[in-house]
What does this fold into?
Amino acid sequence: MVQSAVLGFPRIGAFRELKKNTEAYWAGKITADQLLQVGKDIRATNWKLQKEAGVDIIPSNDFSFYDHVLDLSLLFNVIPDRYTKFELSQLDTFFAMGRGLQRKATETTKAVDVTALEMVKWFDSNYHYVRPTFSHSTEFKLTGQKPVDEFLEAKALGVQTRPVLVGPVSYLYLGKPDKDSLDLEPISLLEKILPTYIEILQKLAAAGATEVQIDEPTLVLDLPENVKSAFQVAYDAFAAAEGLPKLTLTTYFGDVRPNLDAIKSLPVSAFHFDFVRGAEQFEEVASILTPEQTLSVGIVDGRNIWKNDFSTSIEVVKKAITKLGADRVVVSTSSSLLHTPVDLENEKKLDAEIKEWFSFATQKLSEVVTIAKAVSDEEVSEALAANAASIKSRSESPLTNDADVKARVASIDSSMSSRAAAFPERLAEQKVKYNLPLFPTTTIGSFPQTKDIRINRNKFTKGEISAEQYEEFINSEIERVVRFQEEVGLDVLVHGEPERNDMVQYFGEQLKGYAFTTNGWVQSYGSRYVRPPIIVGDVSRPKAMSVKESVYAQSLTSKPMKGMLTGPVTCLRWSFPRNDVSQKVQSLQLSLALRDEVNDLEAAGVTVIQVDEPAIREGLPLRAGQERSDYLEWAAESFRVATSGVKNDTQIHSHFCYSDLDPNHIKALDADVVSIEFSKKDDPNYIQEFSNYPNHIGLGLFDIHSPRIPSKEEFVARIAEILKVYPADKFWVNPDCGLKTRGWEETRASLTNMVEAAKVFREQQK
Ligand SMILES: *[C@@H]1O[C@H](CO)[C@@H](O)[C@H](O)[C@H]1NC(C)=O
It folds into this structure.
């Protein structure tokens, strides 16, 4: 009998219980105990769901109140000193590391002011993890036993689980040295961290865990030699230690073949590979197994929402059985289901035809079980027939076969993908047109999305207020944002995006070829979840999407107003993409829809237009090579197709965040001004790299994920530091990202300080 396995389940609750309660805790509205109980309830629900679906191998320790990598940092005492001096509870230390903390002193507690640790993309997904941050003084030791506690919790509920840990090589390699230890290479800490891993593994075994899932996703990256060789050292040490559970080494999000040498003789009991994203690797990876080792076949997509194609999956699993025997094969999700929404059953508004094509986390549980049954010759013929019919209906639907869209993509030529003039000529014309001061100040686009905005949007969605009333409300919000920016003294204004629920969903809802959900939330970071729209068919724009609001905003002010759009690559990356058409084709379809929008904005008098591409970096294939250069080419082409239909003096902006960007990649977009997330970049070499960027650039000056307010002096110091290597006449002054998650009060204070700092430098240049 072939077993079924799940590598991780969404931890946010079917109705975002985790977010609501975590934020209530931060606001002081519920106690720590109440929050802990919410976590416990979510875990119990998840385990029960998996058990009832018939999953054989169910994960534990896949839950986290913020981020599972941060959990491990807390567990292993990888806590920089700046977080320990306030005598916070363990839970509050954890949150302070994740999101920063600024708090006045009370009679019983000290004042706290500490920034968050760096947060970065989890591989090429839209999940972000908190980067482990090591220094020479880091002393690994267990500060608790969360994995054991959660294992025992499941056991008490009658569920035997397989605990999950990020493996030692990936944990170290995904980290970075702290500011005080820049010469430290995290992987050099391997020997030091292993005893702590061994200790927690022994505790898990003692608690009754027979097997642990140990995630080493870095195996899909290009790894330096010293990191590759670390695998053997680490897993030999585990094999030599007494009293450890069996280990399943899991890799996902790609092909591990380039690192096969590093793992081919590891003494683990099983390997898991992703055959959704690395189907080609099958023969070679299956060949490294010794006769004692098991193969976990990752075949149900943990990153997307499409119904599994059973006939294809069964073929792959059967191939594994032929090679290894049924006892040594496990059918699994390709990765954790963290990246998928919780339950399709909660979607009441989806078109029935389309809904039939989807499978969310809960549905994927029965998919792994059904595949495992099918290859074990259990009777599932009805499920297989229904699945085949659904796959066929999608491939033959008119939605996935729009001839007009296909013809327009085929007609894209070089005249459509470059501006009429080179940047210096455009700049000359734009200087005349906009007459901006040195160090022009701007924001990235969104302003605080207040409760009032959400209430009114909800009322409108439910039909409790009319379209006119809603428009009036939105206009009053836009006016407030415009007046606010004039008061603060910003130079290039935005309308604040009160009408937008999300930067991709808002456009997705207006494009043909998109579907969207009511409950399809996925964790992006901490308590921030997104509800990615779904590209279900060929994409086109029936009518203008953003012109009305931008034109209204421009009518309120003589200062330049930025029209705000989300770029084609970001629309693609932050949606669930199709899996039946290439990403390039989907991106070009989107770029044509956006080109129409950019041209409409220009024609309506909005001539500074920002096309955000925050997701361009995350789409970068994880390994260097042909696939990566192809990606960079079509990503840049898509941006240029969207933005090149305008006049020379129309100023195109773009924005990027969450990225370790290579300036060369953004050069190819040829935007007139780019702004990037930068406030947490300490490395002087990284600043230096950007000094050669030819067009104008705003290096983000403050972290918008944190409620803390940087002082004017802090801004001045930061700008001065950057100006040591960066030319003053190309320099824009702006925050890291949009301000929608912030409150008004802190936004006013931060932006005022930022504008004041810009003035200091303007004076100096006179
Ligand atoms: C833009 O600049 C190019 C190159 O100098 C020139 O050929 C073109 O006429 C300009 N377009 C407009 C509308 O001025």
User: Anything to note?
Assistant: Residues 340 and 659 are 22 Å apart (CA to CA). The first strand starts at residue 3 and ends at 5. Residues 3-12+48-64+119-399 form a domain with the TIM Barrel fold (CATH 3.20.20.210).
